[in-house]
Design a protein that fits this description.
By secondary structure, the chain is α+β, with helices and mostly antiparallel strands. Helices cover 33% and strands 17% of the residues.
């Protein structure tokens, strides 16, 4: 594969996105069998800039969490069908919700309901993480009072994944930030992947922008970091992706297995969305958006990081990611 031709083809896919965003720094990394490359798009420019721009990766944090879960299952530290009651004394014994339910969004935890939103507006005493309608204590109380098998089979939940990360860290006798650093960041040598940014890295942390181009403050999550608090670079996420693409970690492999069917063509593993031959997850915060996807059969993968929150109705990293994976497949 010619790298210059690939760069031009990717730029054609990315240009509709970058042309309307004056402050955009769009990083795209690709894996195609033995080749990997990263590009940075800034308006009409394309570079091989090696500056390690740091982005909020949002919900891509969830597959870091489930990758840690997969390893802990392999090591016998936890079991996927463990009841959450095993980890929270306040929850009744033999509660039907398990670690699997938390990892594949089938725990029954509500999303942003109207009544809960109204209640939260008038409750200034309970600190809650962004994008999370429940605090840690509220989530535990929810399961304490909802003791039946969940009737809702799939409902995407930041709280459920955040709770999973919290209990996994507890089992490792530490906090989530330390756990993810020791279990994933350090073993994979992800030198620019953090939750708390070290002072020495602050100059490479990008400013994030809303859909309308307004500068947004950095994301702060305290209780449910596992749902979306990680920051990273395109090069670090390529390293992380290579382990998943190459089947080089048996714990990570567990996360690729379907655990629940959402529709005819879409299932969910542990965190990952499984769609045809593509395994993927995307992310969004108030000022960033991202995509991570790969095809193990073709040995291809793509990372997309943007310092803009994306509109669902406009060109976004999810759409671009799928187009680039198709481009890579056609080039083989």
């Amino acid at each position: 594969m010619d790298l210059n031709d690939l760069k031009k083809d990717i730029f054609k896919i990315a240009y509709p996105y970058v042309k309307t965003r004056p402050n955009v720094i769009l990083s795209i990394g690709v894996i195609c069998r033995n080749l990997d490359a990263a590009f940075i798009f800034n308006g009409s420019n394309v570079t091989y800039d090696k500056k390690p721009y740091i982005y909020e990766i949002g919900s891509i944090s969830k597959v870091f969490t489930t990758s840690m879960l997969g390893e802990m299952i392999q090591e016998g530290i936890v079991k996927i069908e463990d009841s959450i009651a095993k980890y929270f004394s306040e929850i009744p014994d033999n509660h039907p919700v398990t670690l699997r339910h938390l990892a594949n969004h089938t725990s029954g935890l509500p999303g942003f309901g109207v009544l809960k939103n109204i209640y939260n507006l008038f409750d200034n005493q309970t600190p809650r993480d962004p994008f999370c309608p429940y605090s840690l204590n509220e989530a535990i109380q929810y399961f304490k009072t909802h003791t039946q098998e969940p009737k809702v089979k799939f409902r995407y939940s930041n709280v459920g994944m955040g709770l999973l990360g919290y209990l996994l860290a507890n089992e490792l006798h530490t906090d989530f930030e330390t756990a993810i650093t020791r279990r994933i960041v350090e073993p994979l040598n992800l030198t620019n992947t953090f939750i708390s940014i070290p002072p020495s890295k602050e100059k490479t942390v990008l400013k994030g922008y809303s859909v309308r181009g307004h500068n947004k403050p950095p994301l702060e999550m305290n209780e449910f970091m596992a749902a979306g608090a990680i920051r990273s670079t395109v090069d670090d996420l390529l390293k992380f992706l290579k382990i998943h693409v190459g089947n080089r970690n048996s714990g990570y492999l567990l996360t690729h297995q379907a655990t629940h069917t959402i529709s005819k063509d879409v299932s969910i593993g542990l965190g990952w969305v499984l769609e045809d031959d593509i395994i993927w997850h995307n992310g969004s915060t108030k000022g960033f958006s991202s995509y991570l996807g790969f095809n193990k059969k073709q040995q291809t993968g793509v990372v997309i990081l943007s310092n803009y929150r994306s509109s669902i109705l406009a060109t976004n990293p999810l759409e671009m990611g799928k187009s680039i994976l198709q481009l890579l497949e056609n080039s083989l």
